[in-house]
Amino acid sequence: MPDQPFLRLDWIVDNLDEIGFRTLQHLEITAIAMVIGFALSMVLALLARRWRVLRGPTIGISGMLYAIPSLAAFGLLIPFTGLSLLTAEIAMVSYTLLILIRNILAGLDGIAPEVLEAADGMGLTAGQRLRRVELPLALPVIIAGLRIATVTTIGLVTVTSFIGEGGLGYFILNVGISRFFPTAIYVGALLSVALAVAADLLFVWLQRALTPWSRARITV
Amino acid sequence: MDFLARAAAWFADPMHWVGDDGIPIRVLEHVALSGVSLLVGLLIALPIGLYIGHTGRGALVAVSVSNIGRAVPSFGVLGMALPLTLWLQQQLDFRAGGVGVLPTFIALALLAIPPIVTNAYTGLREVDRDLVEAARGMGMTGGQLLRGVELPLAMPIILAGLRTSTVQVIATATLGAVFGAGGLGRYIIDGLATREYEQVFAGAVMVGLLSILTELAFLWFQRRAQPVIEPRRQTGAAAA
Fold it and tell me: pLDDT grade, residue A205 (50/70/90)?
């Protein structure tokens, strides 16, 4: 290690295929977690809105899950779901819940009561009101939640390398730390940062594209 | 639930409670490593955050630190601390006993910084400008203003930042076991290597408990910090 150059460019060039493959795997694990996490959060948030008593427990339990370190979450799941993608995804999904549920609720709570009364007065059913009025108005805050959750998840996916998944974490753990090869650590960590920044920008753009009416007031 | 019985048996085994790799020592290592790293991170981050919040200078630094802190994965910071440690040891000609706990410590201290800087800055900025003006008008110096007005009012937000840092440091300390540092992560990482999943599970239970207890302790502490401020503000308003 002392005689190695700071960055072994030749290793990067030789391993471009593997780097591409691991980057895609990283995106795949993240995307699955985000899609399932968002669907689950939407259902839980709507239930918590429908029945107010559920609100405290929903936030409380997702806060508890969020506090459990990812490696511990894997350790708790392995006896039941093994060293698998499923174990990784259950943990990743559980970390999206707190941020997403909180933002969905905040977005829906932030709508002016007059707007809802107007919607009711126009004769919209509860479902129509939700789809046409409430969700579009809550969208900026919901997307802000998706943005934070996605950036967080991209970072956490690196830890799934401990159970044989990992995406870019494979380079940090299995190549970099295990074989004392710093170049692989830099590649894994910096590409993960690049993905996080790209996701961040994507959501900023998405928010502008989907809610052209709220361009002036972006919150959270 | 055969497995849970075996995990319970692991905890019941008296051998797991004694010696250098016994549960009490591992818990102590985890808490000590997290605590020292947090303290160092706090000593670096708090003055920076307070300076930026108090003077309003360098707000861009505070915002950038928080954005970078969110985008850089904690495991990436931990990984990059390894070559950094080796480089430092080479410069200082100090390499007694391998890398040991040093890369984990460096990574944890670095990870503790962003939330504390961000929240100290935000906390001070959110103090009512009228109060700051009033304090200045009463002839308070910058230091008096900071200690007497800004810090107490910003305390709940600063504590929230410390809580975020603490939870992240405890979580990453678990991963630090890859470098041979001690702590509860040892049970998980060693158990994964030797496929002793009862031990992995037991380690995970302890790490999870430690994290949740820390979170609850902060919630309690934050709630206690709040009322100290509220009545004072109210009496102040009543007197006026």
Answer: very high
Question: pTM for this one?
Answer: 0.87
Quick one: which of A21, A172, A160, A152 has its CA closest to A89?
A160
Using CB atoms, pick whichever of A69, A152, A197 lies closest to residue B171. Answer: A69
Q: What is chain A's mean pLDDT, rounded?
A: 91
Contact: A75, B70; criterion CB under 8 Å: no
Whether the CA torsion B133, B135, B140, B143 is positive or negative: it is negative
Contact B204 A151 (CB under 8 A): no
Residues of A in contact with B171 (CB under 8 A): 69-72
pLDDT at residue B13 greater than cutoff 80: yes
| Interface confidence (ipTM) of the complex | 0.86
Report, as an integer, the average pLDDT of B71-95: 86
Question: Which DSSP string do the residues of A64-82 spell out, in sequence order?
Answer: HHHHS-HHHHHHHHHHHH-
What is the C-alpha separation between B113 and B124, in angstroms, rounded? 17
Contacts across the A-B interface (CB distance below 8 Å): 133
Helices A70-81 and B185-194: crossing angle in degrees, nearest 10, is: 40
Q: Does B71 touch chain A (CB under 8 A)?
A: yes
Contacts of A1 in chain B (CB under 8 A): 83, 86
Secondary structure of B13-55 in HEC code, one letter for each residue? CHHHHCCCCCHHHHHHHHHHHHHHHHHHHHHHHHHHHHHHHHH
Can you tell me whether residue B118 is helix, strand or coil?
helix
Q: Kindly report the CA angle at B81 between B76 and B86, in degrees rounded to 5?
A: 145
B88 to chain A, any CB pair closer than 8 A? The answer is no
